[in-house]
Amino acid sequence: xxxxxxxxxxxxxxxQASLPIRQGGLxxxxxxxxSLPYFLSLFFACQGLINRLxxxxxxxxxxxxxxxxxWFTLNDSSPRQKETQSAWDGLACRDSLAALLDTSSPxxxxxxxxxxxxxxxxxxxxxPIASIGNLVSPDELQITIALRIGASNRIFSKAxxxxxxxxxxxxxxxxxxxxxxxAASPDIQP
Length: 190
Fold this sequence. Notes:
- Helix 3 runs antiparallel to helix 4, helix 3 (31-53) runs antiparallel to helix 5 and helix 5 (85-103) runs antiparallel to helix 6 (106-115).
- Strand 1 (173-174) and strand 2 (180-181) form a beta hairpin.
- This protein has a domain at 2-117.
- Mean pLDDT is 76; it is low at 171-190.
- Helix content is 58%, strand content 2%.
- The protein is elongated, with a radius of gyration of 24 Å.
- The protein contains 9 helices and 2 strands.
- By secondary structure, it is mainly alpha-helical.
């Protein structure tokens, strides 16, 4: 993903990117993160059916006990609806997001809370159609990904400096090497 997006993912950035889009991530779910919720929900969903079809069959509970122990080392609670994968996965994602919010700086905390809002992911659901003006360039996509997950990349740094520079120039400031006011009239001094 780092090669495709030209964004360097740190540990926290990757943790956020692997969250679902509705929880502030990019939806880049890993099989390792999903395997435990899948296994546990499948076991609990099939347990009653197996007991009805094969009443004398005893289920091998060793793997389930190990999986449940693993679950509780990673998460605080189990879902009420144990038969659905989304319930298990929702708890795991909630705990991952809570861990990110607890360890982040105030800037990252605000960015994470903002990324959770439903309207902030609208760009990821838009069809890229050039004729109506919502085709995103590769540079804009890289900047969007970097901003959403709190990572940095070369293009983001250049674009941020250029955007700030053009904004300040438009307001009557010179940009580099020092940000000073331009003498637009005799009473405004640098």
